[in-house]
């Protein structure tokens, strides 16, 4: 299937969704009302009604707070002397050196990576935030540069390329603004790809639709029945957190994100407790941790790794032995994709991080600038190969 000729739209016709939530608690879903919102860990609420310290300790005892801390990159540390060139990066030289031991630079090892890709069908999968764009305080301002956009466009002209993001599919399309790509939003729970009857037969959640150009497409949404619940939880969290300075709640269609990057660290326990209490009302929802964000997602057997496998199938790559995929991402949610490539021996995961992390990735890149350099090398390698072939 030729991905490049698809010109995939981000706004296909959507299936009709039932209005009534059938999957969880409806109405009366607050553990505490807005008036009972704890202002900081261990304190009384504004009304004087007591939210016990034991309640707020839930997120400490069950490991939520530790996970929130662990998923948050360290603050910038100014360095002196010979290390001054690293002063604007969120890590220490020791962190950087240690991370390179476990996950060597994909730039330094580019030739090794390409050795594995020779004479194979190469596919490229990319996260968005922290990979194609920098991590910023306001997620609405996470714009990719024009140079990065041009680079991704070049990559897509040579290789099947997909963006797999935690954002909604429409939102990430609006940010990337490129049509010759696959887009998978909501951690892979919302995928658009060219229409295939075989794909539709194999996956009940596939719906035949059309894009804005009238072309047939496949819309894959395995969590459609959760939409009313997700919308309900989004509205609830917006209401409960409205008085907490710096918090941002986003509806990514099939998941809800609660960003605490701009929240005073003293209130992180409160944020964690709020999410914990709301999710507890919905047995079929779960919370996962990202970079200073809590994501509320449906409890289904689907993630970015499953999305990679689905996209392999949509490209007709599942039954081929000559497939080599590269997945580049910076977040914990990308680990499922790294794991799929590692266990299937069908390519390499590349972690974008300047600090040491446990990861299923083979290699690393420091930041989006290095991601762009790597992608440019990939394009250069492909062009050179085509040039050499044409000269024979």
TrEMBL record:
It is an enzyme of class 3 (hydrolase). Residues 22-37 have a biased composition (Polar residues). Residues 1-55 are annotated as: Disordered. GO terms for biological process: trehalose biosynthetic process. GO terms for molecular function: trehalose-phosphatase activity. Removes the phosphate from trehalose 6-phosphate to produce free trehalose. Trehalose accumulation in plant may improve abiotic stress tolerance. This is Trehalose 6-phosphate phosphatase.
